[in-house]
Amino acid sequence: MAETRILLADDHALVRRGVRLILDAEPDLTVVAEAADGAEAISLALEHRPDLAVLDIAMPRLTGLQAARELSRSMPDLRILILTMYDNEQYFFEALKVGASGYVLKSVADRDLLAACRAAMRGEPFLYPGAVNALVRHYLDRVRDGEGVPARAITDREEEVLKLVAEGHSSRQIADLLYISVKTVERHRANLLQKLGLRDRLELTRYAIRVGLIEP
């Protein structure tokens, strides 16, 4: 059986340790790198070239969804699984949109994660069983009502800037992290305030917490 080399990203060391124990106990699965945030996950993926990335959603600097979006662009052959505590329809659709093969709840990771890893490597989608009927029903309801998948209010780059602003980074730090100019950061910040109808950094932070970009 071919070995699957895995990158594991989660900002909680205890969670990473537990998930690694599950994965490394299998003869065909090996964790080759661990990351504590989304930006580190991208860097380690480019360095180690794993076959599969298992990414938590709520991480500092870049979320798992943001990291997945970038990895799908830069490493199109990489398979991606989202590992999350959020049983959330919007996150599920976002995960599919950024190229993830599956969506696994942490609460049942000991049951579902191995099957999800192997499904991803076969090129098959994986969704935790209890959510399938609800997600299909909700999606069909939206289509029937003419709504489709809910649109995002902000762009991918604006989301990245929003997360970093909410985490307390300065405009210069954000510019350095995203390889853009300070002026561009300030323009994105102004666009966010206007689009979201907010007034300042505090309200941006509250919004970021509400939509799950950062943890309270």
Automatic annotation (TrEMBL):
GO MF assignments: DNA binding
Protein name as it appears in the record: Two component transcriptional regulator, LuxR family
One family name in Pfam for this protein: GerE
SMART domains documented for this protein: HTH_LUXR, REC
Biological process (GO), any one: phosphorelay signal transduction system
Modified residues (4-aspartylphosphate): 56
Entries under PROSITE patterns matching the protein: HTH_LUXR_1 (PS00622), HTH_LUXR_2 (PS50043), RESPONSE_REGULATORY (PS50110)
Span of domain HTH luxR-type: 147-212
Record key words, sorted: DNA-binding, Phosphoprotein, Transcription, Transcription regulation
Chain ranges of the Response regulatory domain: 5-121
Upper taxonomic lineage: Bacteria, Bacillati, Actinomycetota, Actinomycetes, Micromonosporales
Extent of the signal sequence: none
